[in-house]
Amino acid sequence: MSRPMFDEMNASPSEVRAHYLNYARWLAQQPEEVMASRREEAEMIFRRVGITFAVYGAKDEDGAGTERLIPFDLIPRIIPAHEWKSMQAGLVQRVTALNRFIHDVYHEQEIIKAGHIPAEQVFQNAQFRPEMMGVQVPNQIYSHIAGIDIVRAPNAKGEGEYYVLEDNLRVPSGVSYMLEDRKMMMRLFPDLFGQNRVAPVAHYPDLLLETLRAVSPATTAEPTVVVLTPGMYNSAYFEHAFLAQQMGVELVEGQDLFVKDNFVYMRTTKGPRRVDVIYRRVDDDFLDPLVFRPTSTLGCAGLLGVYRSGNVTICNAVGTGIADDKSIYPYVPKMIEFYLGEKPILNNVPTFMGRNPDDLKYMLDNMAELVVKEVHGAGGYGMLVGPAATKAEVDEFRAVVKAKPDGYIAQPTLSLSTCPTYVEKGIAPRHIDLRPFVLSGKEVQMVPGGLTRVALKEGSLVVNSSQGGGTKDTWILEN
């Protein structure tokens, strides 16, 4: 039995949704060969600029790692102003509560004492960092840059409803594609932006720099900000370099930094320069070989000591991963009520936890109908999409979950909304999601929009770039 679908553009085969009317009229007038040439032009420019995504584990015929161009689709995902206003309020609420939770975990632990989250879910979690206990961070903000994954699916009334699928609070990526997709659309179709009041996103790097400077230690009035990258072989290296360049700050690797007299410095051609804020794109385990992984060459020895004493700010904070673990996700609505005294504006997807015996039984009995995810998995790996899997794959995954039930959660297979997309055979619906980027400094703010990811394979629900997904420009219409 096929699931009902929510089409972002079309209310029915003969009716276009109001916020898409202008665009639909324009699209109907475009000759096929013109759109085809625009697609080729976009691909050529993206390739020339080097907007690629390295795929771990994938090899070319010479055995070298592969870099893929992330496919870009010409048909935008359009969201009307009133929907964005509600979504934005929900995002501010959610990220505020998540930051309160992380602070609570490393300080008073009131939510645990109140019995709302089991202690072992926190203290036995691989993302919990005991080194952060009692550490004071500027403005009590831990996740300065959050990427919240949102999907739309039919609710009980058959209407499209937004749900939060995942919280990415450690080192969320993808914002460079949001910015480059907009730049590309404005280059290819400048007339469209004259006909539609599309809210701008180009000021994101300015907001990001403002956010990073706002959480600088009090030791300086003119903070030096750097972007810390694992290096050019990282899958998101293009983004690291892009954001550093857009903000006008230095892109550094661990070997460029050193600690002296309880401050962090970077090596420059003019001698050492003190660093105040590090926007790190390196995981916790690799940040400081004296504290975490001793073999790491990606971080800086002694960094955590300087951080704990308040002489450098690391964004996002060490230990932030405790709040974006998939086993903590089911408790976020409770966090919002506990810390803010409010009902969640954006709902979670219903979630079964393998650690609960009743949930586990349901998961094992209904695995062929569920999406099952490893709690520490990312990028579309470590998961099973039941309806798209073979019986053998389901049986194999069932055995894995049985062996380590607390390592997995499961969710109903949502019928993600679709958006018309250019594919080999022409225009066809493909499933999409949305990742808005939420910045927390002195205030919580974001640009109107986000990264829309699209599953290019027919029927696929996996939108991740590492799994062959593409991207679209996201338009938030202004009133």
UniProtKB/TrEMBL annotation:
Gene3D superfamilies: 3.30.1490.270, 3.40.50.11290. It comes from the Bacteria. Residues 76-455 form the Circularly permuted ATP-grasp type domain. Transmembrane segments: none annotated. Pfam families: CP_ATPgrasp_2. This is Circularly permuted ATP-grasp type 2 domain-containing protein. It comes from Hydrogenophaga pseudoflava (Pseudomonas carboxydoflava).
